[in-house]
Amino acid sequence: MPGNVNPFGITHLRHVDLAVPDYGTQRSFYRDTWGLTEIGTDGKLSYFAAEGSPEQYIVRLRQAGDKRLDLISFGATDRAAVDALAAKLGSEGIRVVGAPGELQTAGGGYGFRFFDVDGRTIEVSSDVATRQHREIEEGEAIPVRISHAVMNSKDPNATRDWYARHLGFMLTDTLWGEHMGEMMHFMRCNDWHHSLAIARGPHTSVHHVSFEMRGLDEYMRGTGRVMRAGIKKIWGPGRHNAGNNTFSYFLDPSGNTMEYTTELDRLTTDEWHPHVFDIADPNTQDVWGTADAMSELIAKDSFNDPDRGVFVAPPV
């Protein structure tokens, strides 16, 4: 099997769903500042698409009393892959939230949900209806698609191993520090350098969610627009070594870190040997040298609040 094809039929990252107390403020942020398109609402739910992506939505917001990650959704090749994965996870003792069935969220489809080793709700689905999307034009500083999701874990090595064993994610690269050990694992389910990464943190939480821009100019224009809107910029602009992608990190109104990026590497060979990058090398974090040096203050923002949704499936 080629080194960039997931053995269990997982194809890509679909969407990240967040529950927030400040629902109205968050809706305005993602629609008016971040550049997503609100395709519809359903009670206290709001669905946001990227104009360049065929996914029905890439972010879902839910109004709730507690801030939490509702779920991370991944695509699958077909219904047979969904059924086979559900049976496999069940036989491995993974807590499945519900048997595979027709999804009731925007775009429908067929899927199921389960808890990962840290208690996050994960959804895998196929046959979700696509939406009309378009080429993002030159100078248009809005997200093309969702790029990747990074999650905090108290034991990132155990979480890495869980995703490799149970979901077939492949390790691409690792960040390492002399005093902290392995700090972040970049994992892939297709030929993108990573769709998921696991960071070392004090508790289970969202580290950041990343959105791909059309190119460098659009990435910088978007970074500037969000800065001008008065949103707190945590780190960037810069370019990471692992993945070779650009980064500008911001705090959304609920304190979740969101990233604009572009030019993330795609792996074109079947055989990839993971690198270990030393975080003490300034070029590991930012090969351009334009961003502030990584510090405890910057890292603290991405630790986020402890997730209130651990091992609790979202209501919808």
Account of the 3D structure:
The chain is α/β, with parallel strands linked by helices and 316 residues long. It folds into 2 domains: 10-126, 2,3-Dihydroxybiphenyl 1,2-Dioxygenase, domain 1, CATH 3.10.180; 145-303, 2,3-Dihydroxybiphenyl 1,2-Dioxygenase, domain 1 (Roll), CATH 3.10.180.10. 19% of the residues lie in helices and 36% in strands. The chain is built from 6 helices and 17 strands. It has a 9-stranded mixed beta sheet. The protein has an 8-stranded mixed beta sheet with strand order 2-3-4-1-5-8-7-6, with helices on one face. A hairpin with a 5-residue loop joins strand 15 and strand 16 (257-261). The protein is globular. The protein starts with 9 loop residues before the first strand and ends in a 13-residue tail after the last helix. The model has no long low-confidence stretch (mean pLDDT 95).
List its traits.
316 residues; alpha/beta; 2,3-Dihydroxybiphenyl 1,2-Dioxygenase, domain 1; nine-stranded mixed β-sheet; 6 helices; globular; Glyas_Bleomycin-R_OHBP_Dase; oxidoreductase; GlyoxalaseI/FosfomycinResist; lyase; dioxygenase activity
